[in-house]
Design brief:
5-stranded parallel beta sheet, 7 helices, 52% helix
């Protein structure tokens, strides 16, 4: 079911959450269903930097990467009509949750540690999971980020749900949030 909101006036849908929760897969599927552009902030950071995220982390550190993420959100995202997958830590730094919410409707995806570990294992593009104990690193990062994720947007759990089921759930959340925002908007005099 495509979104009932016309894409030329529709707020962006931003998918936030930890790596491996399904943001990119779900975002691509919704963009296709809704006939809207799909953007991934990680891909935009790589385009802006002219190198990979792993290289940014290795050569310039996480702080530089986070500054690039902020720049992407501030200046490279469209005002409306897109489906956007946010990098896993994008909403965590101070002020970023508010900035992301100002760009559209935010849905935060959650998954269990086991699911995330299964989905991310063997992925060399995940610099924060390098080392001997990726499960411990996931648990530690999730604990540190949980409040930021909960505050960023409406929570949707992806464990045990198909991509099709998640599309329906997120479409309902999106439509509800858009309707609520329209009701809250002050009426203009004729």
């Amino acid at each position: 079911m495509p979104s009932a909101v016309p894409k030329d006036t529709a707020p962006n849908l931003l998918l936030a959450g930890f790596m491996g929760t399904g943001k990119s897969a779900l975002g691509r599927q919704l963009a296709k269903r809704w006939r809207r552009p799909f953007l991934d902030t990680d891909e935009l950071v790589e385009k802006l930097a002219g190198t990979t995220i792993a290289d940014i982390f290795a050569e310039q550190g996480e702080e530089h990467f986070r500054a690039l993420e902020r720049k992407v959100v501030e200046s490279m995202l469209p005002a409306q009509g897109a489906v956007i997958a946010c990098g896993g830590g994008l909403v965590v730094p101070p002020g970023m949750g508010e900035l992301v919410r100002s760009k559209g409707v935010v849905v935060t995806l959650f998954a269990s540690v086991d699911t995330i570990l299964r989905r991310t294992s063997g992925n060399s593009r995940r610099p924060l999971l390098k080392g001997d104990d990726p499960e411990g690193r996931i648990r530690d990062l999730m604990k540190k980020r949980e409040q930021a994720y909960l505050q960023a947007g409406i929570a949707v759990y992806t464990d045990g749900r198909s991509l099709q089921q998640l599309c329906v759930i997120v479409e309902r959340v999106y439509e509800r949030e858009v309707r609520a925002a329209l009701k809250a908007r002050p009426r203009q005099a004729d």
